[in-house]
Amino acid sequence: MSSNAQTVFPPSADFAAQANATAAMYERAEADPQEFWAEQARRLDWDTPFTQVLDWSNAPFASWFADGKLNVAVNCVDRHVTAGKGDRVAIHWVGEPIDDHRDITYSQLKDEVSRAANYLAGIGLQAGDRVAIYMPMVPEAIISMLACARLGLTHSVVFAGFSSAALRSRVDDAEAKVVITTDGQYRRGAPAPLKAQVDEALGSGADAAPSVEKVIVVRRTNHDPELPWVDGRDVWWEDTVGEASPEHQPEAFDAEHPLFLLYTSGTTGKPKGIVHTSGGYLTQASYTFHNVFDHKEGRDVFWCGADIGWVTGHSYLVYGPLSNGATEVIYEGTPNSPDEHRHFQVIEKYGVTTYYIAPTLIRTFMKWGREIPAAHDLSSLRLLGSVGEPINPEAWRWYHEVIGGGRCPIVDTWWQTETGGIMVSPLPGVTACKPGSAMRPLPGISANVVDDNGVPVADGEQGYLVLDQPWPGMLRGIWGDEQRFKDTYWSRFAEQGWYFAGDGARYDEDGALWVLGRVDDVMNVSGHRISTAEVESALVSHSAVAEAAVIGAADETTGQGIVAFVILMEGAADTGEELIKALRDQVAVDISPIAKPREINVVPELPKTRSGKIMRRLLKDVAEGRELGDTSTLVDPSVFEAIRARRG
Q1: pLDDT digits (tens, 9 = 90+) for 518-557
Q2: Which stretches does DSSP call E strand in 270-368?
Q3: 554 is in which domain, residue-wise?
Q4: What average pLDDT does the segment 566-593 reach?
Q5: Longest distance between any two alpha carbons in the chain, whole Å
Q6: Which among 505, 497, 322 is positioned nearest to 423, based on CA atoms?
Q7: Nearest to residue 563, comparing CAs of 647, 642, 638?
C-alpha cells in the first residue's frame, strides 16, 4: 500500500457538530447489542410492538422482532402522509431522454401504491405469493415493489439487463404468479425491447412458464405498434392499475414475513434466491440510511446510482430512503447519455446533497477528466458514498477533491446482497477516514479477520472476513434450499457458528479494516497471498492509468501469475514497453517486487456487466487461453475481440 494512502481525513468540526451518529453509539451497542437493535427498530411504526428482539436458538436461522407486526409500505409511505408530509417530494424521477422527468410527492406515491395493491389483490394474489419485477428505472418499478410489500407479496426484482433465460430461471425458482415489465427501455438514447424478452422467457405451449398467470406491462417507450400480446395473460398497467382505486386499507404482517427474494448474479446452475424478511431488514436499512448518510429529513436530496435489480437499489433507493421520509433522485439512464455531463447536470439541477455510487463509475469519471465535473456547480453536495467493491485510494482522493470539493466526508461502505444493509463503514461525523479503507464495523455489527482455523490474525495480516454475531438485516436462507444456505455461508466456520462473507480483509496497525475483495481474488504467488484489489490500486495510482483489472492466472513456476488489464487516461500515451516497465515498477514500490504483474495488457475497454462490475472470471479465461464462459450479462461482449487482438 503506498504511503500516501495512509493520509487521514477527519470530518470537519461543523459536520461533526450536526451529525446524526456519535462515537457513543459504539459503546452503547457493545454494552447491550439487543437493546441497541430494539432502539433502532422502534424508529419504525409497529402495529403490534415486539417483545423479543433476537431468537438465535435455531442458528443459522435467525428470528428478529418475531412477535411484532408491521407493514413495510406503510412505514415507507403512509406514515409520512399521516404526519403531514404528503406534499414533500419523495422522488425526483429523471428519465434518460433529456426532457423526461416527474416529481412524485408522498401523497401521490401513496395513491399509486394503493392502486397497484388494489389491482394485484383484485386478481387474487394473496400474502406469500411471489411477483417478478423486470423493469428499468421507472417510477412504476418502485411503486410495484411497495405495492407487493403492502400486500405481503414477496417480490423478486430481476435486473432488466439480464437475459430471457436468466429471467425464466428466476421466475420458475420463485414460482412467480405475476411478471411486471415495460414495453421497452431506453439504452443510450434509443428504445430497446423488454416485453419481447419476457415473452421469450415465459415461452408458450408445453414450454410455457407454469406459474405465471398475468403479465402487467407499463407503456414506456411506445416503440412497437405491433407489440406481441397474449390475450388473457397480458394487460396494460394504464388500463388496470391506472383504473384502480387510490384507497387501500393495509394489514400488518409478521416481522419474519418474507419481503423479497433477490437472486445473486454470477452463479452457475440453479439460481440462488436470497431471502430477506420484513422487520429486521427494514430496521437495518432504515438505521444505516439515517446514520451512514447522516440524513436530514426535509433538507437533504439523496441520490443512489444503483439499479433496483441489485440489493443496493433495494436498500438505498427504496426501503432505506423512503422509510426515513427522504427526497431522492432516481435516474433511468446511463451516465453518458446524451453526454458525459449528465450526472453533474442532475446534481446541479436538483441540489443533490448525498451521492452514492460505485468505484467503477468514479474511475470512469476520472478517465473522462476533471474538466467535466468542474463545469458544474456541485456545491450542494455535503456527503459522498462508495459501494460495490473496495475503492482504490487514488479514486477515493479524486472523488474527495474533484466531486466533493475537498469538503465532503466519504462513506466507503462494505456489505452484500446477503447482509441486507451496510455492515462496515465510516460514520461521517465521527470517523477519520483512510482512503481505501471501510474503517470499522458499524455500531451493532461484529466482524473479525481470521485465519484458516478461525484464529484472529495479527494487525497487518490478511485473513478471512467473518461476521461473528447475528444482525437484523441478515439473509434468512436460500429460497427452497436450506442445505445450500448452510453449506454456502456457514460451513467454512461451522464450529464457531460464524457467517463467512467470502471476502479477504486485514486490520491495519490503527485498527482500520481493509476489505481486499473476494478470497478467490486473492492470488497465491510463490506462497505469497496477494490481493487483486491491492495490485489494481497500485496500477491506478500511476498517472497514465484510468482503470485496472487484475487476475491470477495459472503459472507452472509460481502457482499463479499476476495478469493485469489496464485502460489509459484520456490523452495518456501508450509508450509500449516503457509504460509496462513503469507500471510494474509502480506495483513493486507500492506493494512488493513479488507483486509485479508477469503480464500487463493495455486495452481499450474492460468487460463489464450492466451494473458496472468487471467480469474478472472472463479475463481469466482469456489469460489462460480458454473458451469464454457465459457472457450474457455483459454490456458489450465484443470487447474480448479487442483484448485478444492486443494480446496477439
Answers
A1: 777 777 776 566 778 878 988 999 999 999 999 888 876 6
A2: 273-277, 301-304, 327-331, 354-357
A3: 526-647
A4: 91
A5: 70
A6: 505
A7: 647
